[in-house]
Amino acid sequence: MFKGQSALVTGGSRGIGLAIANKLASQGASITLLARNETLLSQSVKQLPSAYNQQHSFQVVDLLQLVNPGYDHSRLQESLKSHMILVNCAGITTHTLLHRMSQQQITDTINLNLTAPIILSQLCIKHMIRQHKRNPSILNIASVLSLTEHVLPGTAVYAASKAGLLGFTKSLSSELRGRVRVNALLPGLVKETDMGNAVDSDLKTVPLEEVANKAVEILCSLSMNGECVVLE
Ligand SMILES: NC(=O)c1ccc[n+]([C@@H]2O[C@H](COP(=O)([O-])OP(=O)(O)OC[C@H]3O[C@@H](n4cnc5c(N)ncnc54)[C@H](OP(=O)(O)O)[C@@H]3O)[C@@H](O)[C@H]2O)c1
After folding, report:
1. Per-residue pLDDT at 11
2. pLDDT average per 10 residues of sequence, the chain (232 residues)
3. Is the beta carbon of 200 within 6 A of some atom in ligand 1?
4. Is residue 170 part of a domain?
5. Distance 93 CA to ligand 1 centre (A)
6. CATH number, domain at 133?
7. Computed over its alpha carbons, how large is the radius of gyration of the chain?
8. Which of ligand 1's atoms lies nearest the C-alpha of 13?
9. How far is the CA of 112 from the centre of ligand 1 (A)?
């Protein structure tokens, strides 16, 4: 149960992020959805359950802007202060062989899937550490493609970004010594989302509902820290 807790879910306007947000809200959490498309965010936030009279909101942010040296992080940092749960779910993939990828595609993939979660974690951990008695937690949504036994041509940069996220998860969890739990979830192919629907492969599929359930289970489990949970 997440009654009285607040969660910020990046990529929360649709797909896996929205499914996780829904589950957390159904168990009492107040949710902030973060993505770029304001119209979709305002529709999605209205659909979140609020049986516990909790308040939901959204923030329109292009996470790719976060990496710009001149970007003012203060508004985001202020908003993160009221959240004890951060779900780093926003992500992009490409289905392009490396030699055909532009430099922009490469840096955008690394920046959104890896650098943005690092910056967001940095923005919230000081505050989370101060409130460690409230069991703060960060969940990074990686992918089975971050594991070397799972390969899909055209996703080398995506796989590298998600493998980086696993290293970040393990190392940060150890650095924070349990004051903030940091875990990762590595789903197989989720066909019900825009991203999963665009992939044509024989990777094992996993239902969206199961991914959301597993994410919530990890966030609930106070003994889990530094774990990278494969779900396929
Ligand atoms: N679907 C799968 O098969 C699968 C499998 C394993 C792991 N994953 C991972 O799960 C996560 C969610 O995937 P999904 O399938 O739910 O993807 P999706 O349906 O394509 O949704 C992506 C979400 O990220 C947001 N987003 C994209 N670019 C953004 C940006 N620059 N700034 C802020 N938000 C941005 C999108 O909203 P806007 O476009 O409005 O910004 C949307 O809310 C990703 O990290 C993905 O790598 C997916």
Report:
1. 98
2. 95 98 98 98 98 97 95 93 96 94 97 98 96 96 90 93 98 97 97 89 90 98 97 94
3. no
4. yes
5. 8
6. 3.40.50.720
7. 17
8. 43
9. 10
Active site residue 71: no
Contact 92 CB / ligand 1 (< 6 Å): yes
Residue range 177-219, pLDDT digits in tens: 999 999 999 999 999 999 988 888 778 899 999 999 999 999 9
Q: Which residues of 210-222 are buried (b: 16+ CB within 10 A; e: fewer)?
A: ebbebbbebbeee
**pLDDT of the residue at 113:** 98
Contact assessment for residue 189 and residue 203, using Cβ atoms and an 8 Å cutoff: yes
Task: Give the Å distance between the CA of 192 and the centre of ligand 1.
Answer: 12
Q: Print the domain residue range for 87.
A: 6-231
Q: Classify residue 1: in a domain, yes or no.
A: no
Distance, CA of 110 to CA of 37 (rounded, Å): 21
Can you tell me whether residue 59 is helix, strand or coil? strand
Pocket test for ligand 1, best of 193, 205, 211 (most atoms within 8 A of CB): 193
The finding on whether 110 has its CB within 6 A of some atom of ligand 1 is: no
Question: What is the number of structural domains in the chain?
Answer: 1
